[in-house]
Design goal:
The structure is a homooctamer of 253-residue chains. With 253 residues, chain A is α/β, with parallel strands linked by helices. Chain A contains eleven helices and eleven strands. The longest helix of chain A has 16 residues, at 235-250.
């Protein structure tokens, strides 16, 4: 559904040709756009108020570019994750205002004017190497219009580094913790804060880390009950849920 | 810290013997009660406003009873999870107002007067067999003073059962989904709602379910970005985080 | 066994030199062609009425080309799967009428004149990234002379996409479902149709997908009893069995 | 939906109050019966023409008995699988015509008069110990009105035992193979027949069989392309799909 | 080799009948005592100055009793680990001065007069449930004549509990940390102390703890470089190595 | 096939009624005895000259007894492995000359008069707890008429115990090594001898031994090239192959 | 130890300067050659009568070349396995008579004059792709002076291919079976022959073959008792043990 | 904290401006240096007397160079591990006195004047291929000012090689054993020495070594109680703990 279609529909509502109820119905049931290889769900964005997102990893550069361009055409914000450099080149050539973040491996296209950020997310890393995953989360949360505080390299082997940022932690509505190796940081953070902690195991480590499986298991067995977990390296997913929580919380004050 | 100690402390504040700042400090640093085998953290309850919780599974009946009784002595609400029948007998003998829920395997002791419930959690199961885990979550959420809607046996193989409860789902601030076997339900529910979904894999299944590992992996790989995951059969943990989210959300209206 | 040999044999039957029983015996026991590294089983094709198939993945380009050429010499249809670009170049150079499908990684050589397609297979994918596996299945089924309906990108996180193709699903004699990540789609499809569903886990995903193992486990634990499973990324195997089922079913009308 | 409701509905069709199309619609959307812990889907049986099935393993004896009784009340055939002796006692006390098969761990209740069997399934076991799983499949297929040929203890270490039953194999429309340990039998059978083979890994074995995982992996990696696989010990699921295939095939003649 | 034999041998040395070199040779090569099922290595105790140890888990009560009695006969201290109640009854009946510790599942027999303890080990647990493993370590270290400080229930989710015992930690020559679930405690402790930390994963937990495997993996991936790891629940092994380290360290002052 | 049948057949050969070729044919194709649940292969014993063997673990006591009795009726030696006490009672009641070995969990029935033992097998264990597996191997080898030397409790942590039996090792035609825990013994033994070593991982151990998987992996990765491996606890299989090797070797002298 | 050294030593024995006993002692204890990174064990070759072997996989080309050259200097036969092309180039440059077999990835240097081959090994593959592993075994066995019969591409899905080589199988003293995917071939072969079968799982396959783990597990669980197993792709190890068995057997005639 | 800051602080102590207690406090709490991506903990080095260490594996060359340079600026010794060649080029360009060890993959910068080495570590490898891991340990221990004895290629398949270095082993205060494949060496060494053994599994091996997991499991299950384990290929961690032990032990004399 492109913007024109949407505006025409809204015009019909304004003119009384279409009742609001009927319009809602049509919006909720508007057929997605069928590209053959992908079915773009334009009204999800309208329904949730969140940008469209493309997971680029197993798609060809051509597929990603086509989907991104179609989504952009509807005038909303667009995010692509897991984008390699060659795909990024192709997408930004097609859409020069789209921005590629090499560390986060994201392309973002901001087309709307968000107001003030809603809610506040603290994003922690145990070590420097967890930063790409944390940045994927941060870029996502910021495009989704949420305030982000980055607190990096505060792993548990040097506890004073974590204790020093305790005040900053206390201000967040929700905390994302990215950690590889033993994945112990979410449990410790979970004990320090009274808000939900979303744990992101990273594939940082070697040997018996089994590409992040050790960290994943550690986080699932956390003794802090306010910890939930997402897939290994899934910075985007952590941010998505964190945004939902932060928005709810931000309405409190 | 028992109630008397707390009151004396507050009296000192009232009389000006102690400044509020100093009192806050003391409360935050009050030594836990050391039972030798366990260190009870009384002020966690004061700090978070949530009941005290005992995980009884690997404790002896004597240990559970002693910890439960000490916690109860401070006048707050107490919850024990993973309680077998013989431990339950011993605890309820010591505290006759405590209630044992055999299916949920919980003991609850309500000693405070909560006001109206804050927030609303929908709890779903894929099948009848997932019910004990769902009930652990429900009992927890209710003791934590949150409204719970139970929507059981709505697994994906009979999609109309799920679609029929779509309206009830839409009212919840957060959704808990308990499922064993292939663990597909959270992904489907995640696509239907715009709020966080907490997925609880259950150990229901046989053969290649590997005691819930298949469901766990399925949920971690969910294609719905609003899904986060807790440990297998961890109904309590899911409820704990859900309560935090529901409380935040409930302040919106 | 090349065609000439076959014809001579049949001529002997016609002329009465050989009884039909004896001919059958000889056909069933005709020695395969021994290439040293491979023993080609020519009469399998005669027996089953299905094309010859080469699994090229662990073979050298030379080996694949030699086997393909020998099989082609007997005049029947030939299929090679898991063919990389350099092997494809070599085979198509030797046999210019053979067709390489880069996405499906197949080479097909049609040498017979099949009649009308027998039976009808619906092939579904959960996402765009599952398409190569689905195409391997589709190319196989079409060479085996079965009608194929492609229904791609209908994953469970956007349920309306699947429900929209429900009518098309209902017409199939058998359904192949290709899905990575959590592998939930076969269970949902299994609940919607009354025919066998063959589930193909794909290696699409990351982290705890463990290269398709998560999807595989999910499918094996499906709560829909009409779901059976093949190896990860095994589009060919799914199509082979689906063809057998579709042929049986097609005789019903 | 009980029989009365169904008859009233059909009466309305007869009298012209309801068109056949509308009736079909209502049948397909009739609400299931909600028991609190389970939602019985009565019209599945009407839609598929197959009996209702209860998976009893993770249900309490009370739950199984209640669901079985409700299903039986609608006048159709009912099957319960994974039934232990104490649950069986309770169900058969309530429904004296129900039959408990101790080896297969099934309860069957035949209430309809099926005509001649449709289709033909051969069920093989590698060893004596695989028999309970094979019997679960056989009981299921027979209640679903399909002809069953049992060919037990024909494992690959004594190949002549298998070759001796080759003629019986050749008559089947579909073959179910139950095997534990190395799970090699389905591959060998797959090479001998031209129909679909459904492989059921069993938990028979010790040590590195890892409760059937070795057999499962072996079957998933079968070099015979007509083999698909179900979960470990899932005799019921194998039979369910086999019945669908056999019915289709039986219409050929 | 019992004490008498040893003294006779030493007497021969004193009297010149045997050279010191020859005596050393004989001591080093003295045949162990062959019980048929076990070969007791008496001179290990002489060589290392540490008690004899029996791992009782996979032995029959008769075997354990026989080995324990033979070892005791040589006059040295004896330890048996993993002793169940019925075996304990039999051993203590034979040797009334032997002591059974039910929680630690050890039997100890003190027959020598050790001097002052050498070295100092701190033993920590994350939770109450890890205590049996910690006690196995403590009993071992104490029989081996090392000072033990028990610091139990100081898991990372309540960091203040751990920080409160920091002074006691600082006095130890080596630290043993027993933790199940996510196994995060050794990393945090490793960052707080400047001595070796021996991590003991415990089988405490459920679901994705996989009987201690999650804790084990976490500890192996510790970001603190002074952490080494022993097998799940191996309190004895941790204590054995800790004793060796503590003895070395105790000589410093 | 019992002995009488065999003799009659041979009589026919002698009298010229049957040619040797035809007799061979009949022997090779004699139908096994079909008990419904099991197909006994009587002529395997005739062909290999080895006793009949029953794996009793997953069979009912009735099944084991029936198969054992039928086998015994043909006059040959019979072995049953993995026999529990109650099954043993039933079998030995039916066949009073059969002997139950409780530690090895075997029943043996000697009905032939073997000549001198052929070949020589050394059987080693790393510890006392590996003895049941070693005894299963020893009982098997002895019934199969091979000389056995038992060398128990010679694990690698006390190397002198192993070096002391080096001379006995050197006399064997083949060595079986049973070890649990880290499974290191076969590698060390493999370096000491010039004959094949068959490694049997045992399920002795705890925690990260994962029921023998650690020992199994260790043995498969042995750096000694004369080591081959059988399944965990498979003393029988090790002995079976060892007997074949020892017989071949014994013919050398 | 080179040949000259050996002859000098033997000359001393002949002349009476050295007793045979003393010479034996010196031979058994001759220091290996210490290259810093490797300790070459020259007298192993003398003791076993088998060539020296280098496992090149984790060694640098320089290391492999140095070790190979030193071994060659002692005048015996030398074998290197897992040799990549660049290492081969370097070794054969240094030793022009050494032969590189690219498929088997071996370098062989024949410097002795072996007599007639001793014993007979049949080497089977399930498919064409297993050939490199089989060739590693064949090259090894042939250098070790054993007769080899290659029987390739006889997998179980086309049973007639295997049955056709039954006569050739029957002549072997020992059989090596190389198979990937489901690894079923050793069980079937084990049932056809009366000699030891050494199973080599290969890493041929995809998806749930897990790089050969599925085949490995299948072979370990073989229902044929004459099957033992080596590591995945370990053609060399299989041949080494097979040679020992074949030599013993060859002395029978 | 650079040296100047430190000296100024100490000057204040000398002049009486700052008490020793206050200075200690400030040293222990000095803020680390925050580089955005990393928080350098300068006073750890002061506190422990050990060099600063950078784990370079998951860091960009730029990050590693920046952190290394900052650490070097404080005048202490610096070590970087897991450094690839391109990173090494960049670091040594910035700091020409830093030394890159290609085999160990370390960069070391010696800026202090250590006195005599404290303590003595023996480092063993099972084979030539384990050398890189052993060298990482050796380089670490030497920079940390400990005496190192390298004993390489002494694997258990050739026991005499190990027994020959027994005297050198006996002199060490602690032993590090690096081994891949079956990982048996630590158990054997553990039985030969009376000091702690730190086992380092290496990723050397193939097939069922699963990249070092087999060796890791073997070592965790060691029957020698003086063995503790670190992560696969973690030479640095082994050396770090070994240094702590050796220092303690060295003070004994």
């Amino acid at each position: 559904m492109n913007k024109t279609t949407l505006l025409e529909l809204l015009a019909q509502v304004q003119s009384g040709t279409l009742t609001p109820t009927a319009a809602t119905e049509r919006l909720a049931n508007l057929p997605y756009e069928d590209l053959g290889h992908a079915r773009i769900d334009h009204h999800r964005s309208l329904r949730t108020g969140l940008p469209e997102v493309i997971y680029a990893q197993n798609k060809s550069p051509e597929q990603t570019t086509e989907i991104f361009t179609r989504m952009a055409a509807s005038g909303i914000d667009v995010l692509a994750t897991r984008v390699d450099a060659s795909t990024a080149l192709r997408v930004t050539a097609a859409l020069p205002t789209a921005i590629y973040n090499q560390q986060a491996r994201t392309i973002t296209l901001r087309q709307t004017s968000p107001g003030d950020p809603k809610g506040h997310i603290a994003i922690l890393t145990a070590g420097t190497s967890d930063q790409p995953v944390a940045e994927e989360a941060a870029v996502t949360a910021e495009l989704f219009n949420t305030r982000v505080t980055r607190l990096y390299d505060v792993g548990v082997a040097g506890l004073h580094r974590l204790l020093d940022v305790r005040d900053q932690l206390a201000e967040a509505d929700v905390v994302i913790v990215c950690a590889g190796m033993e994945g112990a940081l979410p449990s410790v953070v979970g004990g320090l804060v009274g808000v939900p902690v979303i744990a992101v195991p990273t594939s940082v480590g070697y040997g018996a880390s089994f590409d992040g499986a050790a960290a994943l298991l550690g986080m699932l067995n956390s003794c802090s009950p306010n910890v939930t977990v997402v897939n290994i390296d899934n910075g985007f997913g952590a941010a998505y849920t964190a945004v939902l929580i932060a928005r709810a919380a931000s309405a409190r004050g």
